[in-house]
Amino acid sequence: MYMSLGAYVIYLALLIIIPIWAQSKVKKTYKKYSKVANSSYMTGAQVARKILDDNGLYTVRIEETKGMLSDHYDPRKKVVRLSSDNYHGHSMAASAVAAHEVGHAMQDAEAYAFLRFRHALVPAANIGSNMSIFLIIGGFLFSMMNLVLIGIVFMSVAVLFQLVTLPVEFNASNRAMAQLVSSGVIRNNEERETKKVLNAAALTYVAAALVAVAELIRFILMFTMADE
């Protein structure tokens, strides 16, 4: 039931170091490009509105929301919510984030398969995230391996949700880049910098998926070794 020292170090690195590094990368990149104005000098809200209208999504609303990098798309209310800095900002970071969230609105309008699959997983993934660790720990404590197995199944659904999130986010970023260029919000010489913002944001999802997979593998190994 015990990991080797090397395996445990790798596990800790995935669990702690990589997420911290990813968050640091996002904040550093965002801070840098939030000080660089886009060539069109459009605010994030204007960028979002233009891309939405260019794609016929006239009924999707744009709202300002509190918090730093709290930007998101609400598929239930059909609203793109942008944090204050991005809503009002004329920066390359603001335009990149706004376009990314509109990318999710475009996915929703087109019934993008991975997005629909992720939405379908939400109820089970929430249960898996909240309950699996208690079932697993309780199962080990009371030597109830069936309970551990149930916990691992629940955790697997939560991990699947994290993995499905990756293509959803990467696709939204690809849509964002294409729309920013085609709409004239950014010029060719700004594409590289815009990609840096989008790629940095994607790192957080990759880090979360790596941690989830590592934790699932650890519990699977503990279960199989305890069952021998």
Automatic annotation (TrEMBL):
<dbReference type="InterPro" id="IPR007395">
    <property type="entry name" value="Zn_peptidase_2"/>
</dbReference>
<feature type="transmembrane region" description="Helical">
    <location>
        <begin position="6"/>
        <end position="22"/>
    </location>
</feature>
<dbReference type="Pfam" id="PF04298">
    <property type="entry name" value="Zn_peptidase_2"/>
</dbReference>
<keyword id="KW-0472">Membrane</keyword>
<protein>
    <submittedName>
        <fullName>Zinc metallopeptidase</fullName>
    </submittedName>
</protein>
<feature type="transmembrane region" description="Helical">
    <location>
        <begin position="120"/>
        <end position="142"/>
    </location>
</feature>
<keyword id="KW-1133">Transmembrane helix</keyword>
<feature type="transmembrane region" description="Helical">
    <location>
        <begin position="148"/>
        <end position="168"/>
    </location>
</feature>
<feature type="transmembrane region" description="Helical">
    <location>
        <begin position="197"/>
        <end position="221"/>
    </location>
</feature>
<keyword id="KW-0812">Transmembrane</keyword>
